[in-house]
Design goal:
heterodimer; A: 229 residues; alpha/beta; six-stranded mixed beta sheet; four-stranded antiparallel beta sheet; B: alpha+beta; six-stranded mixed beta barrel
């Protein structure tokens, strides 16, 4: 379960301070698929980053399964992310020096012992890249890179997956393919999925929609209710 | 935007805005350029001052820059010509040497070597040591004399007593401990007595026909070229033997030559290290700009316009860094003498260093431009689609045609590389005042770059092949670190080349310094003879040797040399009076000292031909190579000597040089014992005695062998040793400084690759990597890179040092420990600087960087 309490984030830009998040309160149940929506600059990506401890909030708390991550040290955070969180970014963020296979294997190598190769291979096959294990990121197309990123995100079977505009850099065919894979993987492993998007089509996959504007939650609706409305 | 309307002015505006936007990064680049230029100007400027100091020190051994020695007084025309030299800023002073008798009341008269000087000018360099201490000008008046201590021993007189010399009488004012030209003065026949020139005139000893030797000592202005001046003096005084300070002590001179060559090398090294620093900083800078360039291109900018912007930026950075560097260098140059002032008085000229500033700036801007050329040319290849998607590398066409196409595609880059090498060569040639060093340096530089770049490719290829087979069996940290080295489009080859070249240069400086200091040490090693014994008869020689060996403070063996005075009668059958010898005063051949030796004497080096085997029965001769050249004889020439009416025919089988340190050092003509059979020689001896024990040994010898003359050069050698130590210290200091500066530059070069690591660090952290883990991955990468670069650099350093030392006729030894330390050190520097550069990055919050994507 993810809990967010009175979360704010202010950044200083020169002499001016900008409030990006102005007090967010949220609770996300385990297994839920949540779409965070909003216009550009509304604070969606910052919120996602704070959920993962990728940045420090100005005030407020983020609790993952009851653990407050706000005051955690860098390395503790890294370890926590490795075990609890999977990431999918808009611009893939694969490690350029590693092959597709090694990129998928990387979280395993960073976070646990034992042999993860079979699982990595299996995940790559599931995302349809069975024959391209030994390609480097630059040798893959954008859609392929994002599929590698998907496999990587699920490698540790984390309870939570965070996705920041996962289809934002892709054409509609590739985007749809990636989205289908994401949902499929999510369903089979029963993870909590938090998706940042401004694409209505993507949001339709979610159980719940949270809309931000100017750093505040302006709408929080369940898909089931919306369908009835 | 059309090309003509996009003027330089708007390019400048954009360049400035771009710089202003990321001031931090530009400061880093500017600092890197400044450190490079600073090291260059600082080290170069200092090495000039060091060289001046070294030469001045060396001059103190002769008290002058140049000395002309002859037996007649100059005639009126010659005097006139000598006087004209003064208008060129040349100072001269006369020293007259003659053998005379001294007497004192109640004592036997004694043969003395009288030396008359003008205290107003003498000595030009160094100082005369007296006991009790005092300055020569104060102590030596027209009615006083300073005398060597052996005169006091032999005559039984003391300071304050009166000596009679010719028609003058002199109060002994002090004991003459040492004078700067002691080692270059002629071997004295009796104790030395120093008086003034005016006093000498009053003694009435200078009668026409008296065998007085005249020395003219010259001091050149700072800008004077010694070889030109020497020729001039030789023309004015054709009968004189003209020597300059470099010839006084061959070992010292050679050490000096090597030291100045080393200083020349050090400046070149500073140049290239500076250039590497500049180049790496600029490379990283342009790399950072790839995205901006792609955006500009997508907005319609043409390659040429973009290049204009970055050329302007480069120029500005080069100028700013260059100016800062010149200031830094000037500071270094000022601080050095201050640091060293207690150990050695340095000559510092406080003129405005315009030359150094111009050179420093030119090198800063030029190397900045030269080294940014390849990345600037790459701008043409940056595709606007980059803003949408990172470049996808196309599979390489492995066929021959594909290779040709790639080479053709890279022709501008290849041209740029050739231009860089040529540019560096020109700069090196201009800056180097030693041709040998300049040429070999440039060659080695090109070779090491070619080898390193190809080797880098090879090692990376090998690594990739190896990893393809074994990678899954390796610990992931190591695998990941290794993988970092050969990722597509990575900079490993460049960093490897920069690091390897840097290490080669730094190690070469170290190896050269070590070898030169070692040989300098040999040339002033503590057991070299410092006391010489003259006129030992054949009957006495065994006894003298035994007696001396028993004295306390005697180190090593007593060396002896037999001498027979002969006249050179003919060369290849032509009598001496029919020979035309332009370069050599014939008078010196009227009485030459013939020595004989069965085995090759210590301190002698055969230059041409071959030394005879032991027990050789033929009449053969080895001649000092300088003399051989001047009297035009070579291997196979026949020389005829007459000794006491007897004719001796000898065949030249070898020529030699001496180190000026042993008893045979003054032997220009050495024959086989068979050649002189039946003749009775006079012996000369040499031995090392602790300076403080010389007096006692002298007294013991005098008591038993009163006719043997002792020449005590202990103090003179002490001075020489001091000079040698100072030279060694100076070059050690400058070498260490350039090594440290080199390491800093290399470290900053590696640090400049940090920008490309930021994204990687962030992704790894996002995936759960701890800082320690990331540091470990980087360590593997840097350690391997350092080890490879270090190994290649050290191998080349050994080769280069070997060639250069061979050219300088100095011995080369492989320094295993130092070489291994250099390799380990390179790996350590690479790793440490990698860590330091990544340290801040490791602590950064990931989101900040991810948002920048």
């Amino acid at each position: 379960m993810i809990e967010v309490r009175a979360l704010t984030k202010t950044i200083r830009n020169g002499n001016r301070s900008v409030d990006i998040l102005r007090g967010i309160n949220l609770e996300i149940e385990s297994g839920q698929i949540v779409a965070i929506m909003g216009a550009s600059g509304s604070g969606k990506s910052t919120l996602l980053g704070l959920l993962a401890g990728l940045d420090e909030p100005t005030s407020g708390q983020v609790l993952l399964d009851g653990t407050d991550i706000s005051g955690m040290e860098e390395d503790e955070l890294a370890q926590l992310r490795g075990k609890k969180l999977g990431f999918v970014f808009q611009s893939y963020q694969l490690v350029p020096t590693l092959t597709a296979f090694e990129n998928v294997l990387l979280p395993h190598e960073l976070n646990s012992g034992g042999d993860g190769r079979a699982r990595a291979q299996q995940l790559l096959e599931r995302v349809g890249l069975g024959g391209r294990e030994h390609h480097y990121p630059v040798q893959l197309s954008g859609g392929e890179q994002q599929r590698v990123a998907l496999a990587r995100a699920f490698m540790m079977a984390p309870p939570i997956i965070l996705a920041d505009e996962p289809t934002g850099n892709l054409d509609s065919v590739n985007g749809q393919h990636v989205l289908d894979l994401l949902m499929e993987l999510n369903q089979s492993s029963g993870t909590t999925l938090v998706l940042v998007t401004h694409d209505e089509a993507v949001a339709t996959y979610a159980d719940r929609r949270i809309t931000l504007r100017d750093g505040l939650v302006v709408a929080d609706t369940l898909a089931a209710l919306e369908a009835h409305a | 935007m059309s090309a003509p309307s996009f003027a330089w002015k708007s390019a400048a505006k954009i360049a400035w805005r771009d710089m202003h936007a990321s001031r931090g990064k530009f400061l880093f680049v500017t600092m890197a350029v400044a450190i490079g230029v600073g090291a260059l100007t600082g080290i170069r400027g200092s090495s000039e001052a060091f060289k001046r100091t070294l030469l001045t020190r060396a001059r103190t051994i002769m008290a002058a820059d140049l000395a002309a020695r002859f037996f007649d007084q100059p005639n009126a025309v010659q005097e006139q010509q000598l006087a004209e030299l003064a208008t060129e800023g040349v100072a001269e002073t006369r020293v007259t040497e003659l053998v005379s008798m001294a007497s004192a009341t109640d004592h036997d008269p004694l043969l003395i070597s009288l030396k008359a000087v003008d205290t107003a000018a003498y000595p030009f360099y160094g100082k005369v040591d007296l006991a009790p201490a005092g300055t020569l000008r104060d102590v030596l008046r027209d009615d006083t004399a300073v005398v060597a201590d052996d005169l006091l021993v032999r005559m039984g007189v003391g300071v304050g007593d009166t000596l009679r010399i010719g028609q003058g009488s002199f109060r002994i004012a002090a004991v003459l401990v040492n004078e700067p030209d002691r080692l270059s003065a002629s071997m004295a026949l009796g104790p030395r007595v120093l008086i003034t020139q005016r006093a000498l005139a009053a003694t009435g000893l200078l009668q026409p026909g008296s065998r007085a030797g005249e020395h003219i000592l010259f001091r050149l202005p700072l800008t004077g070229v010694i070889d030109d001046f020497k020729r001039k003096v030789e023309t004015i005084l054709p009968e004189a033997q003209v020597t300059d300070f470099r010839e006084t002590n061959p070992a010292l001179t050679q050490g000096l030559e090597r030291s100045t060559s080393l200083l020349s090398l050090v400046s070149l090294v500073a140049l290239v290290l500076g250039a590497i620093g500049v180049a790496m900083a600029m490379r990283a800078h342009i790399e950072q700009r790839v995205d901006t360039i792609a955006i500009m291109k997508s907005l319609g900018a043409r390659s040429r316009q973009v290049m204009r912007i970055y050329i302007l930026q480069t120029l500005l950075l080069g100028t700013m860094g260059g100016l800062l560097g010149v200031v830094l260098g000037a500071a270094v140059e000022r601080v050095f003498p201050y640091l060293l002032r207690k150990l050695i008085p340095m000559q510092v000229t406080y003129d405005f260093p315009l030359h150094a500033i111009v050179v420093g700036l030119a090198v800063g801007i030029l190397t900045t431009l030269l080294f940014t050329l390849p990345p600037l040319l790459d701008i043409r290849k940056v595709r606007p689609s980059l803003i949408l998607r990172r470049a996808v590398t196309e599979p390489e066409d492995a066929s021959a045609r594909g290779l040709l196409r790639r080479i053709a595609g890279a022709r501008l880059q290849i041209g740029a590389v050739v231009l860089i090498l040529a540019g560096l060569g020109v700069i090196a040639a201009t800056l180097s005042d030693s041709q040998v060093v300049g040429r070999w340096f440039t060659l080695a530089l090109v070779a090491v770059l070619v080898v390193l770049l190809s080797l880098a490719r090879f090692v990376l290829w090998l690594l990739r092949k190896m990893l393809a087979k074994t990678r899954s069996n390796l610990p992931s940290t190591i695998r990941h670190g290794l993988a970092n080295l050969y990722r597509p489009g990575n900079q490993s080859a460049t960093v490897l080349a920069a690091l390897g070249t840097g290490i080669m240069l730094v190690t070469t400086v170290f190896l050269m310094q070590k070898a030169i200091v070692r040989e300098l040490g040999d040339s002033s090693s503590p057991n070299l003879p410092n006391v010489f014994l003259i006129d030992i008869s054949s009957r006495e020689v065994v006894g003298v040797k035994e007696l001396m060996q028993k004295q306390s403070g005697v180190g090593g063996q007593v060396e002896t040399v037999p001498v027979v005075v002969a006249r050179l009668a003919a060369i290849n059958g032509t009598p001496l009076n029919q020979l035309t010898l332009k370069d050599y005063p014939k008078r010196f051949l009227q009485s030459v000292s013939l020595s004989y030796a069965d085995t090759h004497p210590t301190g002698l080096k055969t230059v041409a031909g071959k030394w005879w085997p032991e027990g050789e029965q033929k009449s053969e001769i080895s001649i000092g190579s300088r003399t051989a050249a001047r009297i035009h004889v070579g291997i196979g020439s026949m020389l005829t000597f007459t000794v006491g009416g007897k004719q001796i025919e000898t065949r030249v089988v070898a020529t030699h040089t001496t180190d000026g340190q042993h008893v045979f050092s003054r032997s220009e003509f050495i024959v086989t014992p068979a050649a002189l059979s039946g003749l009775t020689p006079v012996w000369y001896g040499a031995v090392h005695i602790e300076p403080r024990q010389v007096g006692a040994a002298q007294r013991a010898l005098y008591a038993k062998y009163p006719t043997v003359t002792v020449i005590n050069l202990a103090d003179a050698f002490q001075t020489l040793r001091g000079v040698v130590d100072q030279i060694a210290m100076l070059i050690r200091f400058l070498a260490s400084f350039s090594i440290v500066a080199g390491c800093i530059i290399l470290a900053s070069s590696i640090a400049s690759t940090r920008f490309r690591r930021v994204r990687e660090v962030v992704v790894m952290k996002t995936l759960g990597a701890t800082r320690r883990r990331i540091a470990a991955v980087f360590s593997v990468e840097f350690l391997l890179m350092g080890a490879v670069a270090g190994t290649v650099g050290v191998i080349f350093a050994n080769l280069l040092a070997r060639v250069l030392l061979h050219k300088l006729e100095a011995g080369f030894r492989i320094e295993w420990l130092a070489s291994l330390a250099a390799i380990a050190g390179t790996a350590a520097i690479a790793t440490l600087s990698g860590w330091m550069a990544s340290y801040r990055m490791l602590g950064q919050k990931p989101l900040k960087i991810l948002r920048e994507e």
